[in-house]
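Interim report to the steering committee. The following record documents the input for Serine hydrolase (292 residues).
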Amino acid sequence: MSDTATAARLDAAFADAGVTGWLHAVDIDSGAQVGAGADQPVCTASVHKLCVLVTLHELAAAGALDLTEQVECPPAGRTPGPTGLAAMLDPVRLSLRDTAFLMMSVSDNTAADLLLRRVGLDAVNRTAARLGLTRTRAVYGFGEMLRTMREDAGPDGARALTDPHVITRLRALDPARTNRSTPRDMTRLLGAVWRDEACPAEYGAAMRRIMGLQVWPHRLASGFPFDDVHVAGKTGSLPTLRNEVGVVEYPDGGRYAVAVFTRTAHTAAVLPAADAVIGTAARIAVDALRAP
């Protein structure tokens, strides 16, 4: 498939789903690539948890922390969220690596902020810089980001997030003022993890395992409904935003890093077409990379 034909199919898929989309996909081994707005600054939302994961393992590889180190998580002060520790009622004690599992598998905001308190936001940005992610930056922890949304929404709180005028003033949705990256930066990070360039092989394998345990099948994985194709990824969601980055691995050894970021004018929390187009677009891009 020609680059022009691939671009046209991607544009049509995004338009049919009612979203604006940006994508980058790369063959991890050959470097062949497909892009649609690959260098567009985007809000990462929970996709930035991948950067936290890599930082944690980088520090462990350097001997700065032990992944079996135990952390306490009392009920008070937890970062809000519908999953994992954020939704639990009782005190919890667990290791850093199990905290990372919750952060990645169910996008647990409390787990992410526990890890950020341990490694520090500056360390996350240093890791991104070391890996050449020149347009990737963490500005907030996840609790802080949610706080800005409450402040920007005003006295009506969550109810205001259905108002398009309120949406336009949220700092969390402005790449210039929040955690940000580009599709190309994210595939570069994924490639570094899969080639054991981000961390030594032992730690790379640990990260790949955790990413392979993500529970959400409705975005990237939906484009590859085959028992012998493995998808490992990380989603990210905020009002009007739906994202996922991940790696698709075929039984013939083909490995493809894919980053898809979308935005829609619709403020509804449930938009199945906007979720599904992430898988559709990823499949178009990977098929183009695999074409003879």
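The mean pLDDT is 96. The committee is asked to note this result when reviewing the revised timeline.
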